[in-house]
Design brief:
This protein is an alpha/beta fold. It has twelve helices and 16 strands. It is globular and about 70 Å long. The protein starts with a strand and ends in an 18-residue tail after the last helix.
Length: 470
């Protein structure tokens, strides 16, 4: 390791209400409140709930507990703050309300009819249809709910989940229950949040209630406001970042895939771009690569959408991908970007066998970057000991991710590239955790791919905002 260049990238800050900054999402919310700050009047989120009578009651009970606050099960307050509650006195600065017209009830007799179907997989589609019908009904109300919780009935899991697995997840060979619910929310223009029976029941095998409440509240803020509880404090203006991923439609030709881009612009605004169907170019890797024409079209679409948001073109375009950039792809991405001044293409891989063992009891610091002598790639610790929380919150020994810049399309500034990646690990508004392991440009793009892989996704006018996918 003596030939390695070791350095630490400083922890990125986040912006909260009134332009105040903090490094910890929860700490910033508690001290300053979410961004954009609510008006002088209390902000109220209209909540819809779909489920059977029991699951709706359980969801309502959880929301009532959230209103009064939930203590933490940890004595390490900087790491696990208690949930502060909702309402006028809460630092989260919002409350919720629900109404009978925003409740979509699955009837017992409908579930009994599904139970009469002998084949487990054949029960899945009628179960989904009942949920879709209720979600559509809520979306047609005036006003519609700001967010719809889909409290999955326990009976649906009993009838449709694979009994040979230890999960509540419902899948068939060609369809995924969660993805279908997300698509139904898009059709009804109401962001959804799935709640499994296990999550509603609580218990030792799921997140502690205070942690659960934190994540639900942050998701409610993001989905209801169509905006961000916090934003990045570190990105310059006229920057465009995109994570590129691929998916294959479930049940379709395995050689035909499509591309998507999860695009972020300065401040954290983001949207989804679905590329054209692509035929994988010849490759010895077990990975998908774009042809020149497909790569060019995808970046042109990204910049066109960027122009809709900013009425200009970016000065810098950064592309993240989990696979290597092949020459044909790189040329297409570059030509599609046209006159953009700076283009940087970065491969990000989830694992590397490198391990650092510092002196003392603590693991490597989050933000530690190890550069080998040839500097062809770097090893970045996106997890590790976090001084801001005085803790390493993870199992086992932390491991780095691989950051591999393109040889041609790279400014040479590892510090800047890695600090941006660290920032992107803090922009998953589906969670209030300090950070995630992977940047959202990669992690979210993969999650969105799961939904777009549904066979009927092509028949839907897809929403571009991430809050419909999370």
């Amino acid at each position: 390791m003596s030939d390695f260049d070791l350095r630490r990238i400083r922890e990125p800050g986040l912006l909260f209400a009134d332009g105040e900054t903090a490094k910890d999402p929860r700490g910033g919310l508690l001290k300053y409140g979410p961004r954009p700050r609510a008006n002088t009047e209390e902000e109220v989120v209209n909540v819809g709930i779909v489920g059977d009578s029991r699951s709706i009651s359980m969801m309502e009970e959880l929301l009532r507990k959230m209103r009064t606050g939930i203590p933490s099960n940890s004595n390490r307050k900087r790491w696990r703050q208690p949930f502060p509650g909702l309402g006028v006195e809460s630092r989260l600065q919002f409350d919720y309300q629900t109404h009978e017209k925003w409740k979509g009830r699955i009837r017992q007799k409908d579930m009994d009819k599904i139970a009469e179907i002998p084949d487990r997989e054949e029960r899945v589609q009628p179960s989904i249809r009942h949920l879709k019908h209720q979600i559509a009904g809520l979306g047609s109300q005036t006003p519609p709910p700001d967010i719809t919780f889909v409290a999955i009935p326990e009976r649906f899991v009993e009838l449709c989940a694979d009994p040979n697995t230890d999960t509540d997840r419902i899948q068939t060979k060609n369809s995924d229950f969660r993805s279908q619910v997300k698509l139904a929310g898009m059709e009804a223009s109401t962001p959804t949040q799935l709640m499994s029976p296990k999550a509603l029941r609580g218990g030792s095998d799921v997140q502690h209630r205070s942690e659960f409440a934190w994540n639900i509240a942050v998701g409610m803020l993001y989905k209801a406001r169509e905006g961000r509880p916090w934003k990045t404090a570190s990105f310059d203006s006229q920057q465009c970042y995109a994570g590129i991923s691929f998916y294959r439609e479930r049940g379709a030709d395995p050689d035909v895939r499509a591309s998507i881009a999860q695009v972020f612009i300065e401040g954290g605004e983001n949207f989804v771009i679905r590329g054209d169907p692509v035929q994988d170019i010849a490759s010895d890797e077990a990975q998908t690569h774009l042809s020149y024409a497909d790569a060019k079209r995808l970046v042109e679409s990204i910049l066109e959408k960027y122009g809709d948001y900013r009425d200009s073109q970016p000065n810098r375009l950064v592309l993240h991908k989990s696979s290597n950039f092949w020459p044909e792809e790189s040329e297409g991405f570059s030509d599609g970007a046209g006159d953009v001044n700076t283009k940087e293409f970065v491969t990000i891989r989830n694992h590397h066998p490198l391990r650092l063992f510092p002196e003392g009891d603590n693991p490597p610091l989050r933000g530690t970057l190890a550069l080998p002598p040839d500097r062809s790639e770097g090893y970045l610790y996106t997890t590790g000991y976090v001084p801001e929380q005085s803790v390493y919150n993870g199992p086992g020994v932390p491991t780095p991710i691989v950051v591999r810049p393109h040889k041609e399309y790279f400014s040479g500034d590892y510090r800047r590239i890695c600090r941006e990646i660290l920032t992107f690990t803090k922009l998953d508004w589906n969670s209030s955790d300090f950070c995630k392991r992977l940047p959202v440009t990669i992690g979210i793009a993969n999650a969105v791919s799961e939904i777009l892989a549904e066979p009927n996704a092509d028949d839907i006018n897809l929403q571009t905002h991430y809050y419909y996918y999370m």
